[in-house]
């Protein structure tokens, strides 16, 4: 059986703010811990066959070799019962208090141990996003000074970046030791920087090279010469750089890219940036990333605030879907689409920096679990397209293993207990 991956997600961001004193746990703030059964039922109601979800790292990873699996042990059997295939999000913008932050050089190895432990406990899971949005994690934590370590220098940014990407690579390697046919969907922000005047061309070129750093390192691709000098000047050793070149795990990867109206930026001559709104759009920017990495693609995040007339989010959904079809028809192997997230979020209008308790109308459902117009539109989109796309030759046939009752998946017709070979792209 083949699938086009229609997905949504349970928002599980959990960075710290205010010098580490406050944890912004979106699963708690959106009441998911209390209503998780209802949330999973809504996923099934929407028609999504895939769900980005993961146990909260700060609650689960208690110390070296110490884990509390209470949440996962409740939720993952219900995913099996509902036949929803998880894309497991292991680290989403935050680490446990005992690790500290992304400046800690011990984080990558510790996180790999956690990933291995998860894979051993849930061996039927095949799809993973080990570290969500590696580039944004490093930018918001160590360049903008918004989260976690709240630093704002090139050296702190490079330090966070190399630790985050190394953690992702080591986690992939650890999971593959347990599940050799695992697939990794990198959910990474797809960015573009536009020069707002001739004097800004140089600064924009630098930022347009920098936006690829996390995926270049993750996929073992040699970075541009200017970026190599930048990394070396800001603390990355030759040995650290060589580590990324030596780990070639690309064949197990799908390039997930996220696109929001805030992903394109205007750059001034002094290097300052501001949002540009949608200029090129998803299709053009995705083609840039595909041409660089030549991997199957999944649109792993998008949303838009529902405005006064209620139709803004619906129009954005259809615009994103039209862009997905555009890149697919142009020959890019695109395998999935995601509206993120299932329910509304809290305080993302200030990127979680301020504790206002403000509900952001971005979900398929509101915080009372009532459907929004975009939720009804997404349900119809899935119903209309789910039986069309797998028949098309340009849709990659992702080998998702449908497991037997012995593996923890409910028994039924059409289950193939034999794991496929890892795909070769």
Would you tell me which CATH topology applies?
A: TIM Barrel
CATH arch. level architecture: Alpha-Beta Barrel
Count of structural domains: 1
CATH superfamily, by name, is Glycosidases
Strand order of the largest sheet: 1-4-7-8-9-11-14-15
* Integer-rounded radius of gyration: 20 Å
First-residue to last-residue Cα separation = 20 Å
CATH class type: Alpha Beta
Shape: globular
Ranges with pLDDT <50 over ≥5 residues? 393-399, 402-425
Give the biggest beta sheet. Answer: 8 strands, parallel, barrel
Secondary structural class: alpha/beta
Q: What is the number of helices?
A: 14
Helix content: 25-40%
* Percent strand: 15-25%
Number of strands: 17
InterPro entries: GH, Glyco_hydro_1, Glycosyl_Hydrolase_39
Protein name: Glycoside hydrolase family 1 protein
Organism: Siccirubricoccus deserti
GO biological process, one term: carbohydrate metabolic process
What layout of secondary structure does this protein have?
Layout: E1 5-9, E2 16-17, E3 22-23, H1 26-29, H2 32-46, E4 50-53, H3 57-60, E5 61-63, E6 66-67, H4 70-82, E7 85-91, H5 107-121, E8 127-131, H6 134-142, H7 154-178, E9 183-189, E10 192-195, H8 201-210, H9 213-218, H10 225-233, H11 238-246, E11 253-258, E12 264-267, E13 273-275, H12 282-293, E14 297-301, H13 312-329, E15 334-338, E16 345-346, E17 359-360, H14 373-385
Parallel strand pairs: 1-4, 1-15, 4-7, 7-8, 8-9, 9-11, 10-12, 11-14, 14-15
Antiparallel strand pairs: 2-3, 5-6, 12-13, 16-17
Helix pairs in contact: 2-4, 5-7, 6-7, 12-13
